[in-house]
Amino acid sequence: MNPKEQGIHCFIADDVEIGQNVMLGHHVIIHSHVIIEDNVIIGDGAILGKNPAKSKTSWLKTGELPPLRVGQGTVVGAQAIIYHGATIGPECYIADQGVVRERCRLGTRVVVGQRTTVENDCQIGDFTKLQTAVYLTATTVVEDHVFIAPMVTTTNDPYVARTDARHEAMQGPIIHRGARIGGGAVLLPGVHVGQEALVAAGAVVTRDVPPYRLVMGVPARVVRQVPEEQWLFLPDGMRKE
What we know:
241 residues; single chain; UDP N-Acetylglucosamine Acyltransferase, domain 1; nine-stranded parallel sheet; globular; twelve-stranded mixed sheet
């Protein structure tokens, strides 16, 4: 089906599935095996369904990838790139120059900020916000209602690219629901940031952060409990009224 509106110099592969009321900007490229649901807006110069490439020294495994699916009501910004094998939930917002790699899954109303990169095999829960220039390393898990401030960096290689043992040890951080990460913080491989925890700006997280605790410093240390009036979720798992 043809888009409702389409800018100039767009390329759309023959097997692309496009829903109702989809709008395309100028110079949009949509590769094969892409499914775009209803009411999606795609900005100028965006690329959907890009195939991953790797250097000769890369350990990345590509293989066969499922179609890229872009959920209904999603907005994809100018010059954003979304790879094959990703699943973008409904009403997400991928800002200008955002990148979402292969096998990533985004839930409902996820925000990916300008120039933010979500590497391969990441999972992002509903209503989570990644602000400008966040780097989400491969295999990171981010649960629902998480807030990640600008310039946050996550890492997944405990050996920092030395020794073959790193291939089995690769693991991004796990950020549990309701957690908040302050601007410029760094999270080391495999750390858990507990439910409703708060990581202060500029902190370097080298070990697990307990639920409902504020950590700060280099390395990050527990300072106090997060005030209860700031919680979205109670310790029993229920949503706070």
